Amino acid sequence: MDTHRLRNLLHPELLRERSVHEARPRTTLSFYRYVRLGGLEALRHALYAEWEQLGVLGRIYIATEGINAQVSLPTENLGLFRSTLDARTAFREVPWKIAVEDEGRSFLKLAVKVRKKIVADGLADDAFDVSAVGAHLDAETFNRKMEEGALVIDMRNNYECAIGHFEGAYLPKADTFRGAIEEVVGMLSEEVKEREGAEVRKRGGEEVKEAPEILLYCTGGIRCEKASAYLKHHGYANVGQLHGGIIDYARQIKAQGLPSKYKGQNFVFDERLAERITDDVVGTCMQCGAACDRIGNCHEATCNMLLVQCEACATKYADCCSPSCREIHLLPFQVQRAWRKGRSTRSSKTKAINDPEGLRKRIREEEKLLALRGTLHPELISVTLQEKTSA
Questions:
Q1: In what order do the strands lie in the sheet with 214-217?
Q2: Most exposed among 196, 305, 326, 339, judged by the fewest C-beta atoms under 10 Å?
Q3: Residue 66, beta-bridge partner list
Q4: DSSP H helical ranges for 100-256
């Protein structure tokens, strides 16, 4: 088998153009399963070859602990795709979640990758029982338990919560899953201390914390599997999780005519970035503070930071996060490329803007400097001259 062929070899712009002109309707779906897998490299190549033939695009991670997949494929091939999954014992009858909103352009290429874990949680799985997960709850039960006063916790990153979340949920400030888990453990510890009459007692030799019933949720359910087991390991026995995550919750409430306690948009890790669950706008523009749930990446390539940005600010800052990035982004491509040489991407360290007030202060300061100096990047003078000379 020529494994070199089993990967995308096309330029992103060509892929984007191909996506725009594709006539076939597509369906975006996601699935995961914790299951012991072996022969990962061979499996990776086999999956790529099979799914490429079916027109599958998307991002698939496989590890010894299982599979985590977000894909888009021609709707007409859904039956064949189901057959390829069911043909493997490890993936047989794996449930999948269909995207809430889908224009058929969620992914541009097919990528099947072998990873150490299917979710980067940073946890030592041998330190706790990863199979001792919380109770799986359907939408109706989740709603009822919320009304009964259960503590609802969002297990997503801060930038995901910024455009949509369940009413009254605890929203982590962390921008990584591992950070969110540790933050939640710390929060629950404080919650237990503050609750009147709460105490840590011994029950059958096992330490059990008197805490409210805990309800976890995430995008598709996979992060809650690990998080619920981790919380139970820390002594929180009464833990439930939204089965199928926000994606399947949206399907269930629509099918059953239930009220949506999730408000706003659901952040997704593909070209769409978000899918609307309700018309509520729960976010604010990180640049001006206006009510907004439009999320995107800064268009300056060495920044690429996610931010919530209203249409007016997108126009004002040319889809960039700041005047500094805007100045670079609006330069001729050759000058941009010369300026970027040797520079690392900011979003490789942190994915999103997490201090809106700090960003607004930075913008005010940069606008003043720009008005005074005419540029925020004095080094551009020499870069521009070099480009003109070489041309």
A1: 135-137, 239-242, 214-217, 151-154
A2: 196
A3: 34, 63
A4: 139-147, 158-161, 177-194, 222-233, 245-256
Tell me whether strands 96-98 and 206-209 are parallel, antiparallel or unpaired.
unpaired
Is pLDDT of 200 > 50? no
pTM of the predicted model as reported, rounded to 2 decimal places: 0.87
Given a cut of 90, is residue 11 above it in pLDDT?
no
Identify whether the C-beta of residue 129 lies closer than 8 Å to the C-beta of residue 233. yes
Q: How far is CA 377 from CA 100, 315, 336, 374, 381, in A?
A: 43, 21, 12, 9, 8
Alpha-carbon gap, residue 322 to 303, rounded angstroms = 10
pLDDT(149) > 60:
yes
The CA distance from 351 to 306, in Å, is: 6
**Residue from 161, 218, 224, 313 carrying the catalytic annotation:** 218
pLDDT in tens, 276-314: 999 999 999 999 999 999 999 999 999 999 999 999 999
Three-state SS across 226-265?
Answer: HHHHHHHHCCCCCEEEECCHHHHHHHHHHHHCCCCCEEEE
Residue with tokens 């706008």: 281
In this structure, are residues 376 and 362 in contact, taking their beta carbons and an 8 Å threshold?
no
In this prediction, residue 288 carries a pLDDT of: 97
Q: How far apart are CA 104 and CA 27, in angstroms?
A: 6
What torsion do the CA atoms of 247, 253, 259, 262 make, to the nearest 10 degrees? Answer: -10
DSSP string, 305-337: -EEE--HHHHHHTTT-SSHHHHHHHTS-HHHHH
SS3 144: helix
Per the CB < 8 A criterion, the answer to whether 281 and 133 are in contact is no
Report the SS3 class of residue 30. Answer: strand
* Residue 218 appears among annotated catalytic residues: yes
